[in-house]
Specification:
By secondary structure, the chain is α/β, with parallel strands linked by helices. About 40% of the residues lie in helices and about 20% in strands. The chain contains 16 helices and 10 strands. Bound molecules: S-adenosylmethionine. It comes from Ilex paraguariensis (yerba mate).
């Protein structure tokens, strides 16, 4: 009797499983297929006789190790309704003369399943970060606008430092000498949807106004222009709807990555960024490469991972920060100021000891739990990583000082409210993470798992003796105040 497509898929999985010694992962995959297809006769373990050698959509990569070949193959099985769609990756070692992928073998099955069989070759591309992503928009329960009290604490904590910095370091004469100062431009890089960006802008504007007053230049007070920058997917509508009607500045949105130049050269007088310079521009390739020692299997971040993983993140961060400083150096006028509030970790800490590390670890463990329960494959978790890096203070300082376009005017640990004050309950802590990471998670795992994922996360946080303990919260913010050097220092000399 001819086999149905479903049976063919099963036979193929079983056949493959005999090659690799019928590993538990393959066994689980076969079992899942049976249960999804409501087939009652789940085969015995191991299968009595190998079924015919059929291959389904799969990708085999082979590389030599001594006289053996290591083969990594990935199989895809998918349902007609796309309800069940998963990949299964397996590495096996066998003599070089062993099994080979023959394209012809896939044809019978492709013919049976038709369009519903998605070739694995397409699916096996390394999963990279989307070009643009954003915090949760709107002002609903899970929005960033409603769940950014911790980040607001950083802006609040920086108010005095910004006022002092502007009073001491903003040189109005120097600024006026490089251009007629009838317009003072401020930009917030990584503004999100508010309300924190609106507070930051107000603080900077008032500090500059105060500086003009203190120098008895009130009559020359310029017009203020504020640029709000974020990724193109940021919910700029919510931000612009919440602009204060009585504001004393013109507002404009500037969409695009701040790791490139987004404003005209020498057009900016004050650059600001808060809670944003921990987001790296892309994931290091090696953490997604199963052949690399930096492959981040079973984790979604570098905390608790092999040192190669955190080194890869650190390298990407260094490249990104350099690109950020380079772009801002082009945009700022000589004498222009830049205040950065950067999430970091103390020098003596390893990031797994900071609360943010353990929070991300908890989230990763929830994803692994769901993978083990069959919601998606473990490979799906392996290919997901959060693009976040928290530099130790000394590393941050060295990176900043490497850029010669700026003078470092001030750098210190901020006194912002700790997490247990800014977010006292488990619910706050859960929504804080959800507002920031949901977009990226949805993009990778689908929106249907979000409620369950964060329910599990919330439970783990509540049960964790570590996460909610204030003594364990070692996350810090660094305030960095930089001044753009003039292009040609020799013209400044008397
Ligand atoms: C945690 S939010 C901080 C928002 C706001 N500054 C605050 O203090 O509440 C980080 C923001 O940085 C943005 N971001 C991250 N990488 C970016 C990039 N390369 N270019 C522009 N925005 C970026 C994110 O989209 C997000 O809106």
């Amino acid at each position: 009797m001819a086999s149905t497509p479903a049976q063919l898929v099963l036979q193929t999985l079983q056949y493959r499983s005999t090659i690799s010694g019928y590993s538990s992962a393959l066994f689980k995959a076969v079992k899942e297929m049976y249960s999804f297809l409501s087939l009652s006769s789940f085969p015995s373990y191991p299968p009595p006789t190998p079924p015919p050698p059929l291959a389904i959509g799969h990708h085999i990569s082979t590389y030599p190790v001594n006289d053996h070949a290591i083969t990594r193959y990935t199989m895809l099985y998918t349902s007609r309704h796309r309800k069940y769609h998963s990949r299964l990756s397996e590495s096996i070692s066998y003599p070089v003369t062993g099994v080979r992928c023959r394209d012809a073998q896939t044809r019978p099955l492709r013919a049976c399943l038709g369009r519903n069989l998605k070739p694995c070759m397409e699916d096996e591309k390394p999963i990279k970060l989307p070009e643009s992503y954003a915090m949760n928009g709107g002002d609903g329960t899970c929005s960033y606008a409603q769940n950014s009290s911790y980040q607001r604490g950083a802006v609040d904590g920086a108010q005095e430092l910004i006022k002092e910095g502007v009073a001491a370091k903003l040189d109005i004469k120097q600024l006026s000498s490089s251009s007629s100062l009838n317009r003072f431009c401020i930009a917030d890089f990584g503004c999100s949807t508010g309300p924190n960006t609106l507070l930051a802008v107000q603080v900077i504007l008032e500090a500059v106004e105060q500086k003009f007053k203190s120098e008895k230049l009130t009559a020359q007070l310029p017009e203020f222009q504020v640029f709000f920058n974020d990724h193109i997917l940021n919910d700029f509508n919510t931000l612009f709807q919440s602009l204060p009607p009585e504001r004393r500045y013109r507002a404009a949105g500037v969409a695009g990555s701040f790791y490139r130049r987004v404003l005209p050269k020498a057009s900016l007088h004050f650059a600001f960024s808060s809670s944003s310079l921990c987001w790296i521009s892309e994931l290091p390739e090696e953490i997604l490469d199963s052949n690399s020692p930096a492959w981040n299997k079973g984790r979604i971040h570098y905390t608790g991972a092999r040192k190669e993983v955190s080194e890869a993140y650190a390298l990407q961060y260094a490249k990104d920060l350099d690109a950020f400083l380079h772009a801002r150096a082009e945009e700022l006028v000589g004498g222009g100021l830049m205040a950065l509030l950067i999430p970091a970790v103390p020098n003596v800490m390893i990031s797994s000891e900071t609360t943010i590390g353990t929070e991300i670890d908890l989230l990763g463990s929830c994803l692994m739990d769901m993978a083990k329960m069959g919601s998606f494959s473990e490979a799906k978790v392996d290919s997901f990583n959060l693009p976040l890096y928290f530099p130790p203070i000394e590393e941050l300082e060295a990176l900043i000082e490497a850029n010669t376009s700026f003078s470092l005017e001030r750098m210190e640990i901020m006194n912002n409210p700790p997490k247990h004050v800014a977010m006292p309950s488990v619910r706050h802590r859960t929504l804080f993470l959800r507002a920031c990471f949901e977009g990226l998670l949805e993009n990778h795992f689908g929106s249907h798992i979000m409620d369950e994922l964060f329910k599990r996360y919330s439970k783990k946080v509540a049960e964790s003796s570590f996460t909610m303990n204030p003594d364990n919260d070692k996350s810090i913010f660094m305030l960095v105040l930089l001044k753009r050097k003039s292009e040609s220092p020799e013209t400044d000399s008397p």
